[in-house]
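Hey L., structure's done. Input below.
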Amino acid sequence: MPRYRATFRCFNGCPGEHALTTPIYRCPTCDGLLAVEHDMRALGDRSATEWKRLFDERYMRTTWPYGSGVWGKREWVAPDVSDDAIVSTSEGGSNLFWAERLGREVGMRDLWIKQCGNAHSGSFKDLGMTVLVSVVRQGMALGTIKSRVIACASTGDTSASLAAYGATAGLPVAVLLPRGLVSTAQLVQPLAHGATVFALETDFDGCMAIVKELAKRDLVYLANSMNPLRIEGQKTVAIEIVQQFDWEVPDWIVLPSGNLGNAAALYAGFRMMKELGLITRMPRLCVAQAANANPMYRAFAAGKDTVDAIVAEKSHASAIQIGNPVSASRAMAALKAMNGVVEQATEDELADACARADRTGLYTCPHTGVALACLFKLRERGVIGENDRTVVISTANALKFTEFKLGYHEGTLANVNARRAGTPIVLPPDVERVASAIAAL
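Output:
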């Protein structure tokens, strides 16, 4: 079997490399972001056909660790991690849902929803967290990672995922949450897994500033997507989508985005497939942002190559309520390489998009609502065509956002006109009264 390897290198191209088990988060030369780079020459020892066959043979098998959609592609992710170090909950393999009825409503024949919320902790964050926690476990065994605690700042889903994987591995976890800005379900998840939860009187960006300083002092190992190990796992969603389409590339990917690591991850997956000959082209990318937290949209609209930090306003799409995205430079590179666009959705638009999708059999989180609302706009303008195969990334399970759903149908959400709200019909236990109501439907 060929020897494959991956290392940390500077995203800006500075010389030098570092083992993945090194606790390093920024380039020591320029202080820029890091990226995981693979030995593409070694990976080229297998043909594209051989890689496809290998990935298909492993896909969602029970043999450890190939029940995982991430570790079934281990040579492309973290090839040096041993079986014993891997911490997995069978992440990946999520449903690629053909949204036929919703597609018909908006004039699309080939609309699909990649339901990444059908995961152990209920979000796409599991795809990256399995890689990060596995590498940490191996680094601790090797003695290269000295920090005893893994920590993150979070708007909810990252903390839930880290807590679940930390508990699975038996490692202590600390999470920093903005007080009052996460759903009850998202707050309960890390508490249930035994993580230490800090509710700080600030927003996500304030939590992120503190956890970065804690990591700088070597008090914790940083688990946010500033750490490129997360991106390595999340990039497998790109490979999995193509695999589920029998190795055909869709025309568009629409992605709700806050900290922007997921845009970089998708590009990393498509780039590897193209470089190794599994695909011949990339899809176009739409980065979808909430209008109340839209630094990438502002940069794109102004024709700028850099993303300026803003103070994010409160959004029902709380997980992407981020004004200073850590992975902005990575996402901008992805946007250019994938001939992408950036669109935004207001609070009313994202809530209505959720309700519209739910009426067709989906059950969508507010962040997926942002992506759908942006999709509807692009379709109305003709940017996305009737026959374009389009995949919307659904990032989380809507059951985490029951307050949002209930608020919509009760008409209590701020800045939302709940035009599709439904309410129960209250009747006495009288069969004739119920029969008459049903006959009136």
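The chain is about 40% helix and 15% strand. The CA atoms of residues 140 and 146 lie 7 Å apart.

-- N.
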